[in-house]
């Protein structure tokens, strides 16, 4: 028997409500190679309407849809969001190399370029792409909307039944008993209402926000959000830019309003070491949101007293060493904003 052309097939996705089209894609991958790696994106993101399931839950849902023989040939790999295409590709390739034991393993990438979001499939020149074509008109976003908008769990499952593997219905019925669905439905409804306000705009809205990363004595100042989106999640202080303010002025104002942190203007200006723009199209569930993040380093001193107010339910100083263990508790890309300033050299 001739050796297979490929040793491994790779399927990349978020699988945030595993559906029939994704199952067909996975089985096509198993047809092409003896082993398949399912690279599950957004693996460390907090629960949100866009990312309702944890990495472990998504692995369970996919495994339930496979036969015993198929499960024996599939490995699942966690892929973090980094909001940087080049770094993300490097992460995916390094993760695969660790799994296969070699960077020279013959890998085929299995996917479908259904729209511009599939352009990432072109970023792996060493992996031939097998475009499996459209596997039906099924979209994770619309399936999640059905889950959130139905009057009951039974109604939601009935709406999903024809578009997801049978095992997924049982998985969702059990998952719906956990204390997450009600909060996600509430947040989804608030986001939908906000999106409806802009539905008649002649152009898709682009929002401009500001954030403040404040570092003192090995700690960083964080808030716990008091409102949707991201209610209850950790974030850096920030908000929308005001019409008559510069981005810097808005960042300082939001910092004061949400945490009570206040220093002389000259001291704040001296402590401001960097500013970076974070503009990944998918960084916010609100839609297209571009933020200007300012980094303030006040060196070694006593931690000032703070208190959450305005949009912040809580404000606190968190040791920087503890941040990695909190990644899955952060709103949107705020963990990665911190990572950009605290683990890499600040720009000149």
Automatic annotation (TrEMBL):
GO terms for molecular function: catalytic activity. Residues 205-341 form the Nudix hydrolase domain. Gene3D superfamilies: HUPs (3.40.50.620), Nucleoside Triphosphate Pyrophosphohydrolase (3.90.79.10). Pfam families: CTP_transf_like (PF01467), NUDIX (PF00293). InterPro entries: Cyt_trans-like (IPR004821), NUDIX_hydrolase-like_dom_sf (IPR015797), NUDIX_hydrolase_dom (IPR000086), Rossmann-like_a/b/a_fold (IPR014729). This is NUDIX domain-containing protein. It comes from Ramlibacter montanisoli.
